[in-house]
Amino acid sequence: MTDNRDRRRPITRPKFHHTTFATLKLDEMVEFYEAVAGLEPVYYGVNGAWLTNDEANHRIALLALPDLKSPVDKGHTVGLHHTAFEYADFHQWLDNYERLAARGIRPFLNLDHGMTMSMYYQDPEGNGVEIQFDAFGDWAKSKEWMWASQEFSDNPIGEYFDPEQLVQARREGLDWEEIHRRARAGDYVPAEIPQVHLPELW
């Protein structure tokens, strides 16, 4: 019989299911994730909430644990930088930006990574939340581009953009492929380049 101890991958791979946050701001966190990514509570109690925006029983869990301490210099310490949610196309993604901006919820960072266009928000606890769409419209193609392209290797962070300039370009009749191409060319760079670090809220 062949020794199988060196097999490093599971034969059947599990799918990513959810992320859990400890929180001192349970109600604010529930409101934020419902506004930004459509996550609604399946269960919402005094000590926690379990939220979903699809068929899963939950995608984000929020635990209001006793004796939690406020973080120190959270935006500049190791750990989770952000979670991400993906829209099906450019128009849904940009519509979501306009909807949130009208409520005063704006991203702190916007990047065209090549395989995605992405806006980064910050939840009430200071955690990052990426809202993106796949520019290839096909995960197999975007994965291949990340793996094979010199462009991504040279600049994996991507190009900064101002979302208001994207809104204006769409109003002027540019199609999303042209907007994406121009963003990659640096045509929509914001007046001030933000840090990729999470802004410090504590």
TrEMBL record:
InterPro entries: Glyas_Bleomycin-R_OHBP_Dase, Glyas_Fos-R_dOase_dom, GlyoxalaseI/FosfomycinResist, VOC_core. Pfam families: Glyoxalase. SUPFAM superfamilies: Glyoxalase/Bleomycin resistance protein/Dihydroxybiphenyl dioxygenase. Transmembrane segments: none annotated. Residues 15-134 form the VOC domain. The lineage of its organism: Bacteria, Bacillati, Actinomycetota, Actinomycetes, Micrococcales. This is VOC family protein. PROSITE patterns: VOC (PS51819).
